[in-house]
Amino acid sequence: MLLTGGLKSLLPHVLRRIIRCNRHSISNTSGMAEGYKQANIVILHKSLADDFEKFCHANNGPLPLLYRSKPGDWKCPSLSSDSDIRTDCPQYRVYEHGAFTGSVKSLKEYSEQLKDMVTFYLGCSFSFEKAIQNAGIPIRNVEQECNVSMYKTAVPCYSISTFCCNLVVTMRPIPESKLEAAVLATSELKEAHGAPIHIGDPGLLGIQDLSKPDYGDPVHLHPGDIPVFWACGVTGVEAVINCRSPLAFTHSPGCMFITDLKNDSVTVGSSSEVPQVYCISQDPLHYSMVSAEATQKIKNLENLIGIDPGDRGIIHLHRPDELLKACLTISHARSVLITTGFPTHFSYEPPEENDGPPGALAIAAMLQALEKDVAIVTDQRAMDLNKKIIDDAVQLGILKRPVPLLSYQRENADSALRFLCENGNRRRPRFDHLIAIERAGMAADGNYYNARKVNIKNLVDPIDDLFLAAQTIPGVTTTGVGDGGNELGMGKVKEAVKKHIKNGDTIACDVEADFTIVAGVSNWGGYAIACALYILSTCEIHDRYLRKAVGFPQLLKKKTWLSALPSVTKKWHSFHETHRS
């Protein structure tokens, strides 16, 4: 890439003139005209223009529309004072019936055909490079003097008529310590694709090998760099290919049209507009995004449920932000398995206490409203009891429909893996996330104890196996909700349980969950998860990140989500919340 002398800092109209005269060999425009907007180009027959414009509006993350020309108009007066779209990109691509037929430096030979064609100018991530650099973040592809890496993903765009394709993304390596700064620098530059749509493992987007981009050049990561992905205007090229128009033109990826428009300095306003970044998984590496406002609401929830009505010392078990991180992870999940049941009343029938099932149903109700798959696994001896609870919950309107009820028995060493994954294949898990709420947890000696140190192992099926097996399955995460330290998942805080909880040396659960939510009453933890999922779903920053900036905001479903929240009017009093474990 040639960035010698003043090419990097020349004004846009001078650069366009240089490109038009083909005086220099410019392989891409990354790093040029710093601070000015650049544009992807799609040129289509006028009969397709209205549908393509609708396609852009339906997928405005990758395709932010800067300008649409009239048929045969080679200029774009709102973007540049002196331009000719036939000559002002360093290179163009020609497509006939969806097939790439060659690259050209000029479209002048197609001037007659262009009279019936419309040009779309679409925002480009090159426009935000200066903002990233101003935040003290290196641009690796500029350092390495190459084009940015672009990849086709497995994420489908919202289809309009003949325009349908998967999302294309750019990848920029960002030092881990600078992730949030990169997000802040780009989030309000919506005409340059805005905030990233994915941070972490490329496999989660369906990208198999970062060293083999579909467009552009491979960009090498430095130690400590995290791959960060932004929506890319080359999505428009894929749409052109799939619509199979008799004739269409695009810019060559990386060879942009440089406008005269400066990127306005943007100041983020309210806390609802300030994005924050959290790591929610190490294997595969995955970060999520949420607004500062939503984060604070969930932290307030976490503080509320941490009140200790029994004065048992649970404050010492509390780990900050576990509710937030757990719910971010659940929000990304497609299928969730819930378990509950603590047979603390060992001399009664049924022996279950009634802390746990209401919280489990609150979580299940919200997951159903969010259109996620959800199932409950419990002890074989308690199947009839739980079926009746679920049927009653449907009748009362707490659940939209019955939740599948499962039981687990250990038959051999692979039983847990085969339960969680199709044919025991770790690459095909049935569930993305496991939640245990007020579920008896196995102690270090292999037994299960209630708070009074009574061994209740004969009443408990080894569902802990599932949480242990989940630790070996990439992409499957777990949450434990408890109020005393002897619940499944509390192994993460077992040392604190042994030190601060009565009988802790004996009763402490030894099995860890990825996230540990400690509440004064476990049901409160379940209600908090349901409320936090609602908060995340109504957070515009998180919603955009979930849908990868394609399609439309899901906020129209807010009424459905609201109706799924736990409330007194849903007759939760049918489950008395007396804590007896």
TrEMBL record:
Keyword Iron-sulfur: no
GO molecular function: D-glutamate cyclase activity
InterPro entries: D-Glu_cyclase (IPR009906), GLUCM_C (IPR025504), Putative_hydro-lyase (IPR038021)
Residues of the D-glutamate cyclase-like C-terminal domain: 301-570
Organism for this UniProt entry: Anas zonorhyncha (Eastern spot-billed duck)
Keywords, alphabetical: Lyase
Protein name, per record: D-glutamate cyclase
Family, similarity comment: Belongs to the D-glutamate cyclase family.
Gene Ontology biological process: glutamate metabolic process
Claim: Nucleotide-binding is one of the keywords in the record: no
Domain of life according to the entry: Eukaryota
Gene3D superfamilies in alphabetical order: PSTPO5379-like, PSTPO5379-like domain, TON_0340
